Amino acid sequence: MSQLGPSPQRLFSCTPSKLTAFDCPRRYRFSYVDRPPPAKGPAWAHNTVGAAVHVALARWYSTLVPAHRTTEAGEILVEAAWQDEGFRDAEQSARWRERAAGWVRSYLAGVDPRREPIGVERTVGTATATLAISGRVDRIDDRGDELVIVDYKTGRTESSEDEARGSLALALYVLAARRTLRRPVRRVELHHLPSGTVAGYDHTDESLARHLARAESTAADIVVATDTLAAGADPDDVFPPVPSALCSWCDFRAACPEGQAASSPLDSWAGLREN
What we know:
With 275 residues, the chain is an alpha/beta fold. It has 10 helices and 6 strands, in the order E-H-H-H-H-H-E-E-E-H-H-E-E-H-H-H.
């Protein structure tokens, strides 16, 4: 009689954002473990701005033929995608809608509307011996011999090469795009619309291996914490908070006494640079 071998190890299914949430284990628990999760705070205005810009740029490619891909069309798409969530009042919302539309107009002035990306809001994925990774990329460009991962940014500060190099998400997107699209990929770019700048980095096998090892280590810690919790451990022991001034920006600050003690409350529009 033949004997069955050991059962294959179950892969930990994750996105880059799921892994980075474990930077604060309590935030991870609130996001992915507790059901129902604690109520989140109000929407952030800077996230509203970023979402409208991302939607507009995606639709510029996905809903318009090249002849209709004008800078003016980009502005209209921003206006169509706009929400008022997180702003102080209607006047502030309208001012930022106009500003975001201007960013998109300026950005698209330097884009060839006839050049089709390989993917827009494209989901890519790959697997290792322990992980099943997936994620959605803002844009994947075909630059001849290689594909390039493009990530749009709308934050207050310009992106840097260090940010591009250190981004776990972008590195995992490179690995996932290689697997999904079967093409060489090594370059990642952060396109910062407010400043019109691009920060890029060309990954090597070594740099990708470091990011993957970091992802696998984080996933292993998550699995241990989740299994320990299931065995009856105290949630606060296995998913402890990591309080700091950054807790001001946490969606779950109201549910975390340690986070409240370590930070100050912020208005929902505090992430906007008004000057």
